[in-house]
Amino acid sequence: MTKESVIKEFTALKGVGQAKAELLYTSGFTSMEKLKKATAKELQAIKGITEKNANDILNQVNQSEKKETKPSKEKQKATPVKESSVKKEEEVVEIVDEEQEEEYKAKKKPKLDAKQKEKLQVRKQIKKRTPTFLREEWFRYKRIPRNWRRPDGITSKMRINLNYRPSKVRVGFRGPKEVRGLHASGFEEVMIYNVADLEKINPDKQAARIGGTVGTKKRLEIAKKAEELEIRILNMKV
């Protein structure tokens, strides 16, 4: 082995840098095998290597020896019976994966015409460029929240649309009329509070949103009935 390859092996050990690796090589340890046969006292004799460094190096070398011998013993003990058991385990895993894939159900989508689908895309683009509307001088006083309020007052700089002031709510930020008020999926939202309210919903164009005051027991009943009627619930996984 060349000097460079031996030094590279030495630097792979923890606590051995380039300088210490070269010291080991110049001290007569020209291979990893010679380093394995070395004692702690021999390593301590080298300048720059302490007792702790010497013990750490020898421990790492001995551990690497054990790791190399283990695979060979395992290969000798391996039998064809174990291989068959591994194959059976792999088959079981494949079956489980197939069952999980079958359980997935795509979410119901609304029946929209071409114009509505186009306008939904337009609304998405408008939403991307719409800024966050903040109340006038929200940054000046801690008591002012960030919610929107129309600016007023004769001295209001925001009211007169100075360039360095935040954006105001304007008609130009509004979405297309054809899809105004629709959910992002394209459904029209209908609030429901019991199972009977589901009968008023058109599953092709409307989706249900369960009220916040409805309890868990009633929610489960609504979800079960909605699955039978093929109605999508927007705020609950069905």
Which characteristics define this entry?
238 residues; mainly alpha; DNA polymerase, domain 1; two-stranded parallel sheet; 8 helices
Characterize this entry briefly.
By secondary structure, the chain is mostly helical.
Structural features, described:
The protein is mainly alpha-helical and 238 residues long. The chain contains eight helices and two strands, in the order H-H-H-H-H-H-H-E-E-H. The protein has helices spanning 3-11, 18-26, 32-37, 40-44, 51-77, 80-103, 114-129, 216-229; strands at 188-192, 206-210. It has a two-stranded parallel ribbon with strand order 1-2.
Counted up, domains total 3
The assigned structural class equals mainly alpha
Strand order of the largest sheet: 1-2
- Describe the main β-sheet briefly: 2 strands, parallel
Total strands? 2
Low-confidence stretches: none
* Helical coverage, percent range: 40-55%
> Which outline best applies?
elongated
Fraction of residues in β-strands:
under 5%
Task: Sketch the topology as an H/E string, one letter per element.
Answer: HHHHHHHEEH
Helix run count: 8
- Distance, first to last CA: 66 Å
Mean pLDDT: 81
Task: Indicate the topology.
Blueprint: H1 3-11, H2 18-26, H3 32-37, H4 40-44, H5 51-77, H6 80-103, H7 114-129, E1 188-192, E2 206-210, H8 216-229
Parallel strand pairs: 1-2
